[in-house]
Amino acid sequence: GVLANFFASMMSGLVTVTVSMPLDLAKTRIQNMKTSKHGKPEVKGLIDVITKISQKEGPRALWKGFVPAYFRIGPLTVLTLLFFEQYSKVFKSLMEPRKFNLMVSNNMDHVVVREDPRRYIEVNLVMNFCPYCE
Asked: With helix as H, strand as E and coil as C, how does the chain read?
């Protein structure tokens, strides 16, 4: 139901933030790094940034800003997955084949197709398939 989708999407947001925070922090540090006087960068790459942060600031520093990031990602995943579930239910209900009840009149010249009790569709049948065969 909706409640299960809500909790599943909150957990999805939690996993997303937990996995992406170290990479996002490393990306930000690379973007903001300065070069030396000779034009050499301070770090060599992503792994180098992550190891230097862990050594200098401790492993918990890789998740700085976790709470604001979760407050940003959490509602986004909740709304995305809830709307996706509701729209997919509507789409499936529109795409499933409809069942019709056929009622044939006594003289066999027309058929009434009943889709629901409030609506009738009449279809005229052509009984002679060959006009020259009589």
From this structure: CHHHHHHHHHHHHHHHHHHHHHHHHHHHHHHHCCECCCCCECCCCHHHHHHHHHHHHCHHHHHCCHHHHHHHHHHHHHHHHHHHHHHHHHHHHHHCCCCCEEEECCCCCEEEEEEECCEEEEEECCCCCCCCCC
